[in-house]
Amino acid sequence: MKFSRDSLPDNHETVHDPSRTVFQATKAGALYAIVVFSIGFILGTIRVLLLAPRLGETTAVIIEAPIMLAASWFVCRWCVDRLDVRRTVSARSLMGLVAFLVLISAEVGMGAMFGRSLVDQLDSYGYSAGAIGLAAQVIFAMFPVLQVWRRFGKPLDRQNTATL
User: Fold this and answer.
1) Are 35 and 75 in contact (CB under 8 A)?
2) In angstroms, how far is the first alpha carbon of the chain from the final one?
């Protein structure tokens, strides 16, 4: 008896479609940013309401940043595995760039919802707490590439890195 799934194309091809690779990396980057932003919203609320009034904004961010980075590391790994992002520096760099842009866009949008102008948001990066937060976001964006090197020792062999 033949089932409909038997006629589906084999997804385990040796040749990789560059457009599929770009799509997977883009989708993974967006998902990565959305999940991390959601976690950050919860932790940011705790930081603003409970920690910052008692410890100061900079100390509160210093406490929050490592927690966010640890969560980001695991979310990144989950997204890469779930969406099957290739082990190439270019695919993972695209994922990190998309994640960074989505995260910053969400942050700017959230700030606007609370009446904070774009100029005020950019100005905040000039202060300790804002600079620490921005540094953590840059590290967050680098995690997809860092995980290639950490988990596999190197990207895919040279013959397979010609495409994304």
Assistant:
1) yes
2) 39
Compute how many other C-beta atoms are within 10 angstroms of the C-beta atom of residue 67: 14
pLDDT recorded at residue 16: 63
Give the tokens for residue 75: 């979310």
CA distance linking residue 68 with residue 40, whole number of Å = 7
Contact 100, 37 (CB under 8 A): no
Alpha-carbon gap, residue 77 to 28, rounded angstroms = 10
Which tens digit of pLDDT belongs to each residue from 83-131? 999 999 999 999 999 999 999 999 999 999 999 999 999 999 999 999 9
The whole-model pTM stands at 0.81
Nearest alpha carbon to residue 77 among 155, 148, 161, 156: 148
The sign of the dihedral angle between the CA atoms of 59, 65, 68, 70 is: negative
Q: Which residue has the tokens 């949008």?
A: 109
Q: What is the DSSP letter of 1?
A: -
